[in-house]
Write a structure and sequence with these properties.
Number of domains: 1
Helix content: 55-70%
Structural class: mainly alpha
Distance between the termini: 20 Å
Radius of gyration: 18 Å
CATH topology: Ribosomal Protein S7
Strand order of the largest sheet: 1-2
Oligomer: single chain
Shape: globular
Amino acid sequence: MRGKPQSKRKINPDPKFNSLVIGKFINYIMRKGKKSVARAIVYKSLDIISEKTKQDGLSVFNLALKNVAPSLEVKGRRIGGANYQVPIVVSNERKQVLAFRWIIDAARARKGKAMSEKLADEIISASNNEGEAMKKRTNVHKMAESNRAFAHFAR
């Protein structure tokens, strides 16, 4: 039997931009509780973005998140002894989580630069509908599209 659902924790907005999204993104970047290091990485990458694109770093970041966030994903469902990949609509909260995860993973996979530079490059490429995070999104959408025949199994 499952336990009760875990209550949502209140996340504080970041001090520089007073944005909840940036505050949450900093928490995803953070490793081993080093929030000041994560904050420095994110702020430096936003500065690099504004230098390279000559636009507001926050607006480019929000555009990248919007581009990377998936609208459909597949979920394994066991029906009658067979496993089906059933396409489901993604909630807004999960869209944000997946976009964060994919951007960060793609940035960490890049080699040869500081994390702030890798993150800035990935965010810029995601805002231009390019990069590894966008490839991940298109793969997820292709999977959902190819398994559309099983959509009637979704609850």
